Amino acid sequence: MARNRPYTCGLDAAIDVVGGKWKATVLWMLEDQGPLRFGELRRRIPGVTEKMLVQHLRELESDGLVHREAYHQVPPKVEYSLTDYGRTLELALRPLGDWGHANMARIEATHA
Amino acid sequence: MARNRPYTCGLDAAIDVVGGKWKATVLWMLEDQGPLRFGELRRRIPGVTEKMLVQHLRELESDGLVHREAYHQVPPKVEYSLTDYGRTLELALRPLGDWGHANMARIEATHA
DNA sequence: TCAAGTACTGACTATATTGTCAGGTACCCA
DNA sequence: TGGGTACCTGACAATATAGTCAGTACTTGA
User: Fold this and answer.
1) pLDDT tens column, A27-72
2) Looking at residue A4, what is its pLDDT?
């Protein structure tokens, strides 16, 4: 989104971190449904492509929000989970998620 | 951002509404500093162009979050303020803003 | 031997969002 | 007559973000 650093307000910074098309959903899935494998995430997020999922996971990881655990097996197994830091974000995100949930119909109706 | 409707979760819907580059800042300004004129907003948000400000204000208005009051004067005077609906969003956004504020340094350091 | 599952990578393309720039109306002040 | 203020609009260009598609390595099951 080509955000302006230094940020004008905390909100700006937070949305920068969580603003990708699938990031909020990933965070929500990982909090709600525990550690998940790559393929599980892909199947649970309808419409996401492998490429975008990898890319967003990498970003969330380098932001320290998500932990990636690779098991050296064949076939490969990789598990993603929230870090403690990630959980603090999930917590801060919850009221917004509730707001969106409560106003979903209105948002879908008015937001072109 | 070409979001997916119907939304996967409330968070998705909420970020769709608040995800523009300057929208969160506008909402925050209007809540924090009361009704503001167009020019006041522009001066308070460093880096925003008139075009983007108008565009985002129009979207926030058509989403029912912001109220636009035009005074038929010369020179023109237009005041923007939050609607009640907009205030509920601001409220839901606050924990996220606090999170961003608290972790600003970390975000700036890690988020490329 | 061929297909399928697993977790990816990378080149290329498409779309969405943002920015630049010029202009437009109406008035006041010098 | 020429600025300055105020609130915009629209054409066009630039950038950012997302999507498509092919391909990797290895192994199990048919």
Assistant:
1) 999 999 989 999 999 999 999 999 999 999 999 999 999 999 999 8
2) 72
Predicted confidence (pLDDT) per residue in B32-80, tens digit: 998 999 999 999 999 999 999 999 999 999 999 999 999 988 789 999 9
B85 burial (CB, 10 Å; 0-12 / 13-18 / 19+) is: middle
Q: Which residues of B touch A100 (CB under 8 A)?
A: 7, 9-15, 17
Of B45, B106, B112, the CB nearest to A8: B45
Distance (Å) from the C-alpha of residue B18 to the closest C-alpha of chain A?
9
Yes or no: domain B10-110 corresponds to CATH 1.10.10.10: yes
In this complex, which of B14, B17, B46 lies closest to A97 when CB atoms are compared? B14
How many A-B residue pairs are in contact by the CB < 8 A criterion? 172
Nearest nucleotide over every DNA/RNA strand to the A36 CA, judged by C1': C7
